[in-house]
Amino acid sequence: MNNETLFLSDLHISFEKPEITQRFLGFLEHRASKAGAIYILGDLFDAWIGDDDPSPPNNKIRKLLKQLTSTGTKVFLQPGNRDFLLGERFCRDTGVRLLPDYAVIDLYGTPTLLTHGDLLCTDDVAYQAFRSKSRTPEWQNNVLSKPLLLRLLAARWYRFRSYLHKRKKSSDIMDVNQHAVLTALRDHNCLRLIHGHTHRPGIHSFDLDNQLAQRFVLADWQKDKAEILCWNAEGYQNETQ
Ligand SMILES: [Mn+2]
Fold it and tell me: What's the CATH number where 109 sits?
């Protein structure tokens, strides 16, 4: 069983959604330890304002991640658009390894491209502009140097603002752009992509330079429903948590 690889994303863990936290803690304690590797493709947390934030349920999650990685399960994490400030201290505390925005892994013989998914939503020009700005060291140092309380308040404000913006945006620009998908696959020499972010779970097959390519979109976690993508040498299946 140790030869399994699990993919999940978009848990959006927060104090306000204890059901999701509980489900994830249960996953870490039971299901995850049976796998060889776990890939969390971003937005594990609904907001991450710095590795020094001890607000619940962060410490409990740190502890169980540490427990899991200490027993030999590898855990990899890609930054999402909500938790891109996860940093080195979090990795030290948990044994989790951070991956870059695009990462290629060898998934039982097939090169597979992993990404959170927000980079592929190129039609959302305003978001991409904010994204570029917020990934600079200047922006991040400026934010992280603010007192914790101020960051907590700012995060609340941003989440509220993002909720308002999302209601106004057309649903098309919130999905991936197919040209961006093809370019990313070409750039990384892959025919398989796994991502989250859009909260539109599914498997899409399409042509890439006369070869069959596939895009797996992971499900976001909800109070009463959570899904992970499980791969082994034989293939994949979706598993309800
Ligand atoms: Mn996201």
Answer: 3.60.21.10
Burial-class residue 105 by CB neighbours within 10 Å (0-12, 13-18, 19+).
middle
> CB-based burial of residue 237 (10 Å sphere; 0-12 exposed, 13-18 middle, 19+ buried)?
exposed
- pLDDT tens figures, 65-87: 999 999 999 999 999 999 999 99
What is the Å distance from ligand 1's center to 135 Cα? 15
Q: What's the structural domain count of the chain?
A: 1
The residue among 64, 24, 28, 7 whose CA lies nearest residue 219 is 7
Q: How far is the CA of 112 from the centre of ligand 1 (A)?
A: 20
| Structural domain boundaries, residue 234 | 5-240
- How many helices (DSSP H) and strands (DSSP E) are in the chain? 7, 11
Ligand 1 centroid to residue 179 C-alpha, Å:
19
Gap from CA of 69 to ligand 1 centroid (Å) = 24
Question: Which two three-digit tokens encode residue 104?
Answer: 């290629």
Contact between 98 and 86 (Cβ < 8 Å): yes
**Distance from the alpha carbon of residue 154 to the mean position of ligand 1, in angstroms:** 18
pLDDT higher than threshold 90 for residue 174: no
With bands split at pLDDT 50, 70 and 90, how would you rate the model's confidence at 170? confident
The rounded Å distance from CA 11 to ligand 1 centre is 10
Percent of the chain whose predicted confidence (pLDDT) is above 70: 99
